[in-house]
Every structure is written in structure tokens, then in C-alpha cells.
């Protein structure tokens, strides 16, 4: 994989850059990646993705040996190096592990959008229990063969992946599917492989479909206790087809009144399209596929839209930290849909879903969790149409303009990245700069304390 391809993900959930070597920070980050969804550390690369030019190969090898010596148990890693006229860079990959990893002193870290986060005792126990359940995605599906995968779906994935990456990596389909965990080296489809590329995955995994129901009114029952729905649709096939079929139904049912502006006719949606599509994709890729008997359900009422997926919140995620933190129950499904283009940027969906609902004049989404289900509720507001963001007056200083340029390029910025952009400015001044941009309505603050970062409004 090329350096530019790695950098496309942006610093965050699955990518860290380290312009200066630190074995301690490298060990911490490798543990965090192994305990979360996996990731890559780029040694000798700065926050803007440029090779720093001060990395020596033997120093990188020594730092990795020292870092791995601090990991309990050792973290499995892979190594890739890049060289150009600016110097050397090294990519150290750490895949998600089914084991719980810690540092030699007992500290346990996970990876969040804001960097590495230290877990307390109760959350370590929850994470350990999650790890102990095994990796269901990579289990071989009994009776399935390579012929049960759909060549047309695989070709669509390869084409969209090439467009997204900007180049063809030259991998044969079998090589890519094996690397993704979609099939074993013997050509046996895994759970992830059938869900992503299966011809009829519901034959082997019946619970992998989706049901949409449109109710008349605000209750699921009509007069006299009769079923109150006016439309019912079932979506089958590989997950990409399930998402697209459900999205087609939702687009039909979400159209509101038409508004004429000048000579242009504008169709308004009942809900912000991004918020609905993000909730849909999340429901499909984060559900617990071990639970049989229930499919993803979408229930649309006159006043709300409910998207419910089987399985409680994964790992150490709670309703209190769901915005700031990220943990995938099905990392291979998530990465597959990300490569496909169904997920725009890893770890930012909930943030933007909230932002889109508020900007459109609606209440923020509601999240409900039980041990066996998770539901997102989008409620319609009495306020119709788009509510513009507040206007602001005054000038930005040069530092703030650089911060906005960084946000346009990378999507988010934290205090650490801002300090790297302006190394000669005090942390307090930089904090005030960002607070001023929030007051002006240009950026939104997400998270708290060390996990705080900012996104464009």
C-alpha cells in the first residue's frame, strides 16, 4: 500500500504519525490499535503527511523492538518502508487482536478519534469480555464455497475501491479477499466474506437482511388493533445491496413538500439525507450477526424514523461516550464498506449525524440501548427547511486561517495538530483561537478533555 493511500484515512482512529521516534508512545499506540480496530503508525512523517527526513532505518528497527518489549502479550505487527528524495518513512501496522493487550506496567489503551485513551478497571473488564467472545467475522461458514460469492458484487467493490484510492493496487480478487478476511487461504468464505460479497448470504445467515415498515400516524397499530402500516419492504443480498435497496425505499418515503425558489424547484427531505444514511449503514455494519431470529428494522412514523439493529453497544461503548469514542464489533465489515465508499470517514459519522440534524432545525438524534438491541431515533421538528448557521463578524488571524485550511484537508483538528502547525505559540493562545472559531460558528467542538477535537460546521 502506498504512503498516499495510507494518509487518505487521516490521522485518527486507524492512523497515527510520529515525526520523532518514541518507543514508549509507539508501544502505547500499538496496544491501542490491537485493542481496537487495528491501525498503522507512520514513523518519520509529520502531521501534514510529509516525510520529515530525519529517520534512520536502524533507529526505527530499534524503537520497534523496544516498543514490542513493552507489550503484554506481544502485538503482531507488519513493516513497510517508503523512500523518496525527502528521506525515509516506515509504516508499522497492528491488526485488531482477539486478545486483550496491555503495557508492561498494566496500563490498557484503546484508540479513539482523539488518540490513545487509557481505560479504567471497569472498562477493561468489559473489553476483556468482548475479546473473549472471539472473532465471529472470520469464522468459516459451513457448506459455503467460493461459488457462493457474487462476481458482480466483487467487481463493483474493486471498481469503487480503485476510484476511491485513485489507483489500482494490482491485486487479484482472491488475494484481496484473503487479505480482507473474506475468505481463508483455502478459498473458504468467512462470515465477513458472505455478508460483503455473498450471492445469497441470507441462505447461510438468515438474520442478515433488513425490514422496512411505514406506519400511518405515530403508533404501530391502526384502528381496532389492526396492523397500521401502509408499506412493508424486505431487503436481501450482500450488505451493499441491502444498504442500496433500503436507501432507495427511504428516499421515496422521505420526500417532503416541494419549494419553488425563483425558477428552480427544490424537493425538501423530511430528514437530512446524511443523518439517515449514516444511521442505516451503522445499523447494518455494527449489528451483532451472532444473534439469530432478528433483522435490522427500520420503522417510519409520521413524526419519527427509528432504525434498530440487534445487539447491544459493542466493547466499552456506552450512551455517555458514543460520540467521542469508537469500537467496531465487525471491523472487517466496517473496513469493507469504508473501502467501498459507503462510509465517508471512520469515526466521524455520529458527530456529523448530530450536526446535520441540528442544522436542519431538528432535535439531535436519540440513542437507545438494551443488552440485545441498539436504536437510533430521528424526530421531525416543527421547524421546516434548513436553518442557516449563525453569521459572524470580525477577522481571523493567520493561525486560525491555517487551522481552517487543515480542517478542509483532513476533516478534524485537535490541540496537538494545531500546536504542530503553530509550534511557537502558547497552548493557551491556541485554545483561545479555537474557542473563537467555535463562537463564530465556523467549527464545532467534539468530545471532552484529552479527547477533544474540532470539525468544520
Folded structure, characterized:
- The chain is of the alpha+beta class.
- It folds into four domains: 117 residues, Schlafen, AAA domain (Methyltransferase, Cobalt-precorrin-4 Transmethylase, Domain 2, 2-Layer Sandwich); 67 residues, no CATH class; 174 residues, Heat Shock Protein 90, CATH 3.30.565.60; 59 residues, Winged helix-like DNA-binding domain superfamily/Winged helix DNA-binding domain (Arc Repressor Mutant, subunit A, Orthogonal Bundle).
- Helix content is 35%, strand content 21%.
- The chain contains 15 helices and 19 strands.
- The strands form six sheets. It has a six-stranded mixed β-sheet, with helices on one face. A four-stranded mixed β-sheet has the order 1-2-5-4.
- The two termini are 32 Å apart.
Amino acid at each position: 500500500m502506498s504512503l498516499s493511500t495510507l494518509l487518505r484515512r487521516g490521522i485518527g482512529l486507524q492512523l497515527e504519525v510520529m515525526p520523532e521516534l518514541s518507543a514508549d508512545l509507539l508501544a502505547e499506540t500499538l496496544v491501542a490499535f490491537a485493542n481496537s480496530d487495528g491501525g498503522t503508525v507512520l514513523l518519520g512523517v509529520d502531521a501534514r503527511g510529509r516525510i520529515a527526513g530525519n529517520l534512520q532505518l536502524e533507529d526505527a528497527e530499534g524503537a520497534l523492538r523496544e516498543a514490542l518489549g513493552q507489550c503484554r502479550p506481544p502485538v503482531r505487527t507488519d513493516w513497510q518502508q517508503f523512500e523518496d528524495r525527502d528521506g525515509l518513512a516506515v509504516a508499522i501496522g497492528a491488526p485488531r487482536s482477539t486478545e486483550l493487550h496491555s503495557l508492561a506496567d498494566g496500563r490498557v489503551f484503546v484508540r479513539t478519534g482523539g488518540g490513545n485513551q487509557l481505560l479504567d478497571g471497569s472498562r477493561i473488564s468489559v473489553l476483556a469480555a468482548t475479546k473473549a467472545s472471539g472473532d465471529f467475522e472470520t469464522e468459516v461458514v459451513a457448506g459455503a464455497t467460493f461459488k457462493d460469492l457474487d462476481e458482480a458484487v466483487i467487481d463493483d467493490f474493486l471498481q469503487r475501491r480503485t476510484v476511491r484510492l485513485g489507483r489500482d493496487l494490482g491485486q487479484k480478487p482472491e488475494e484481496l479477499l484473503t487479505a480482507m478476511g473474506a475468505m481463508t487461504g483455502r478459498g473458504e468464505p468467512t462470515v465477513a466474506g458472505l455478508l460483503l460479497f455473498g450471492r445469497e448470504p441470507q441462505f447461510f445467515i438468515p438474520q442478515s437482511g433488513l425490514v422496512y415498515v411505514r406506519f400511518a400516524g405515530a403508533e404501530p397499530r391502526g384502528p381496532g388493533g389492526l396492523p397500521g402500516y401502509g408499506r412493508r419492504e424486505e431487503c436481501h443480498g450482500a450488505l451493499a445491496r441491502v444498504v442500496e435497496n433500503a436507501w432507495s425505499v427511504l428516499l421515496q418515503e422521505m420526500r417532503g413538500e416541494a419549494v419553488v425558489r425563483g425558477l428552480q424547484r427544490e424537493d425538501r427531505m423530511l430528514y437530512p439525507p446524511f443523518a439517515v444514511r449514516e444511521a442505516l449503514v451503522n445499523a447494518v455494519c455494527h449489528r451483532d450477526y451472532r444473534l439469530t431470529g432478528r433483522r435490522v428494522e427500520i420503522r417510519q412514523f409520521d413524526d419519527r424514523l427509528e432504525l434498530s439493529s440487534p445487539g447491544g453497544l459493542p466493547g466499552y461503548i456506552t450512551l455517555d461516550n458514543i460520540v467521542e469514542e469508537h469500537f467496531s464489533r465487525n471491523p472487517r465489515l466496517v473496513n469493507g464498506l469504508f473501502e467501498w465508499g459507503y462510509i465517508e470517514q471512520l469515526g466521524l459519522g455520529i458527530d456529523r449525524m448530530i450536526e446535520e440534524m441540528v442544522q436542519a432545525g431538528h432535535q439531535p438524534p436519540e440513542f437507545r440501548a438494551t443488552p440485545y438491541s441498539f436504536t437510533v431515533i430521528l424526530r421531525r421538528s416543527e421547524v421546516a427547511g434548513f436553518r442557516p448557521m449563525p453569521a459572524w463578524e470580525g477577522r481571523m488571524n493567520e493561525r486560525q486561517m491555517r487551522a481552517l485550511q487543515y480542517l478542509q484537508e483532513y476533516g478534524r483538528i485537535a490541540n496537538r495538530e494545531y500546536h504542530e502547525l503553530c509550534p511557537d505559540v502558547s497552548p493557551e493562545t491556541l485554545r483561545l483561537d479555537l474557542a473563537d472559531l467555535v463562537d463564530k460558528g465556523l467549527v464545532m467542538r467534539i468530545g471532552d478533555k484529552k479527547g477533544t477535537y474540532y470539525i468544520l460546521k
